[in-house]
């Protein structure tokens, strides 16, 4: 059967669909994808596009893998779905929970499964409040995030997100969500004290916010290891160890949002492992199934687990989703982790991420490139109107992204005006060279 052409899809079918972040101007000439393999997307007309974003930061093992569909088929033939609420469980969700135990940190041994990252972070916020309620500290309800944070699209996750464009039209804002500065050396939004590093200044800002609000009112601080949608912001190495110390000092739970960074993206299984962090909770999604089926989750520390499991019936953890621990999704997650480990994709991400970052550095010769940064296969070029003032140039960043797509390479403008790269972990050096050469050709002609 012949493929339906893109023009027909966009004119006859797609108008009946409401897309995420919908605006007609960004969808008028949408990329219609008919199939994909490796790192490439294919349109119905046969055009090939190298996907430098791995879908939405998540197709870690690449497109077209046949083991994951087979794992889903085998599981669905036995049991596609059943409730995973207390009083019932299934085999693959139990096996996946055990596989994840201790993978990110020795104290993270318990997982609650969700359908994605927004649900995982929502679960974290509720669990942080629950934890302090159970301990009798009922005023500890506030959640602190960062100004360029992205934590999801549920109502609570929207207001944890620090990017105002995500909540401008959904007000009034939810009470109890606060924001501190990002550990963003290129645009540090606080004056550094004498001898103070950028990371120490950002950690100090967190401590000062907690003190202003009152430590007895703050439940948790949530942070991405590397901020993705906020602009591929890689923190200084001293930042997170100092943040852990601040959280310990003020009895604030530390939630690591590993939705983008987890499962090899940054060259470690989890981004927080770069700094030896001990999270109290860890949210994940995306790379757990490489996008082949929807799955996310929240890992809780042994200390938090004890508070949950020791509750009397009147104070039980009343939280759950219909698809928590979906059997087929968890079976695919198990197979995906087997592939990541067996193919050494975490190590590959570390090696080729360093290569990608090194190859991008010469692009600094273009006046519009203000900064180049990255960790593993998660990199960004910040586009500016003026290098001296570091004025963001979002219009130019979008134009460059569009020009790259026209030449067959997909990137995405995020944050102030940063071109993000987050390709599948199976990418080759030759394919990285093609990305960089395409960027260079576009910058040279713009």
Proportion of strand residues:
15-25%
What is the correct CATH architecture of the largest domain? 3-Layer(aba) Sandwich
Helix-strand pattern: HEEEHHHEHEHEHEHEEEHHHEEEHEEEH
- Return residue spans where pLDDT drops below 50 for at least 5 consecutive residues: none
Q: What is the CATH superfamily of the largest domain?
A: Type I PLP-dependent aspartate aminotransferase-like (Major domain)
Helix content: 25-40%
Radius of gyration: 22 Å
For the terminal residues, how far apart are their CA atoms? 41 Å
How many distinct domains?
2
Counting helices, strands and paired strands, the structural category is alpha/beta
> And the CATH topology of the largest domain?
Aspartate Aminotransferase, domain 2
Mean pLDDT: 97
What's the CATH class label of the largest domain? Alpha Beta
The tally of strands reads: 16
User: What sort of overall outline do the alpha carbons produce when their principal axes are compared?
Assistant: globular
Count of alpha/pi helices: 13
Tell me the major beta sheet: 7 strands, mixed
How do the strands line up in the largest sheet? 4-10-9-8-7-5-6
């Amino acid at each position: 059967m012949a493929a339906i052409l893109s023009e027909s899809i966009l004119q006859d079918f797609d108008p009946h669909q409401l897309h995420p972040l919908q605006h007609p101007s960004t969808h008028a000439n949408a990329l219609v994808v008919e199939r994909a393999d490796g790192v490439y997307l294919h349109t119905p007309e046969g055009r090939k596009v190298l996907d430098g974003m791995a879908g939405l930061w998540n197709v870690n093992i690449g497109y077209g893998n046949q083991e994951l569909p087979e794992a889903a088929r085998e599981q669905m033939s036995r049991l596609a779905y059943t409730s995973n609420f207390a009083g019932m469980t299934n085999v693959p969700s139990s096996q996946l929970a055990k596989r994840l135990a201790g993978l990110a940190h020795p104290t993270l041994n318990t997982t609650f499964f969700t359908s994605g990252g927004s649900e995982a972070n929502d679960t974290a916020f509720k669990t942080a409040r629950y934890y302090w309620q159970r301990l009798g500290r009922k005023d500890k309800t506030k959640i602190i995030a960062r100004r360029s944070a992205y934590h999801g699209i549920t109502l609570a996750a929207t207001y944890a997100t620090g990017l105002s464009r995500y909540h401008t039209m959904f007000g009034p804002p939810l009470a109890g969500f606060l924001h501190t500065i990002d550990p963003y050396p290129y645009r540090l939004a606080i004056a550094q004290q004498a001898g103070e590093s950028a990371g120490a200044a950002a950690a100090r800002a967190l401590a000062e916010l907690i003190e202003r609000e009152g430590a007895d009112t703050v439940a948790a601080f949530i942070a991405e290891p590397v901020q993705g949608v906020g602009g591929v912001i890689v923190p200084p190495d001293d930042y997170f160890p100092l943040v852990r110390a601040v959280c310990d000092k003020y009895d604030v739970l530390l939630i690591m949002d590993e939705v983008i960074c987890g499962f090899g993206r940054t060259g470690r299984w989890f981004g927080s492992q770069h700094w030896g962090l001990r999270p109290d909770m860890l949210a994940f999604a995306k790379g757990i199934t490489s996008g082949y089926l929807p799955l996310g989750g929240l890992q809780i520390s042994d200390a938090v687990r004890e508070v949950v499991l020791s509750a009397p019936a009147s104070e039980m953890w009343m939280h759950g989703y219909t698809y928590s621990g979906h059997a087929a999704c968890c079976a695919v997650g198990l197979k995906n982790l087997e592939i990541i480990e067996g193919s050494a994709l975490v190590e590959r991400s570390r090696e080729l991420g360093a290569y990608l970052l090194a190859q991008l550095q010469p692009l600094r010769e273009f006046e519009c490139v203000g900064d180049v940064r990255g960790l593993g296969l998660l990199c960004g070029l910040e586009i500016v109107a003026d290098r001296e003032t570091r004025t963001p140039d979002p219009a130019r960043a979008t134009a460059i992204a569009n020009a790259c797509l026209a030449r067959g390479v997909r990137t995405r403008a995020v944050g102030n005006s940063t071109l993000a790269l987050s390709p599948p972990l199976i990418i080759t050096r030759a394919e990285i060279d093609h990305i960089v050469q395409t960027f260079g050709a576009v910058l040279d002609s713009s």
